[in-house]
Amino acid sequence: MGLPGKQRTKSSKRRRAAHFALKKIKTNSCPKCHQPLLRHRACSFCGYYRGKEIIIIKVKKDKKKEKSNK
């Protein structure tokens, strides 16, 4: 076992920790439905990526509309 290393100074700790801050997520808008989405990923609202439908999205039914129709 070796001896403990030298103690880091306050300024050295802060300088090292300066890179730990969270960065903003960069988003684009979908060209088809204009919803915000992450770069290089298919849109979770319409299922399109680069002008082609990649994911088939099932339409969510409104429960309120179903109840009123009954």
What characteristics describe this protein?
single chain, 70 residues, alpha+beta, two-stranded antiparallel sheet, two-stranded antiparallel ribbon, 2 helices
Characterization of this structure:
By secondary structure, the chain is of the alpha+beta class. The protein has a domain at 24-69. Helices cover 21% and strands 14% of the residues. The chain contains two helices and four strands. It has helices at 10-17, 63-69; strands at residues 27-29, 36-38, 48-49, 52-53. A two-stranded antiparallel ribbon has the order 1-2. Strand 3 (48-49) and strand 4 form a beta hairpin. The longest helix has 8 residues, at 10-17. The termini are far apart. The mean pLDDT is 84.
Which structural class matches the secondary elements? Answer: alpha+beta
Euclidean distance between termini CA atoms: 77 Å
Count of separate DSSP helical elements:
2
From the spread of the alpha carbons, the general shape counts as: elongated
Q: What is the strand arrangement across the widest sheet?
A: 1-2
Give the SSE string: HEEEEH
Proportion of helical residues: 10-25%
Taken as a percent bin, the fraction of beta residues is 5-15%
Runs with pLDDT <50, length 5+? none
* β-strand number: 4
- What does the largest sheet look like? 2 strands, antiparallel
Q: How would you state the average pLDDT, rounded?
A: 84
Radius of gyration: 25 Å
Question: What can be said about this structure in brief?
Answer:
The chain has 70 residues and is α+β, with helices and mostly antiparallel strands.
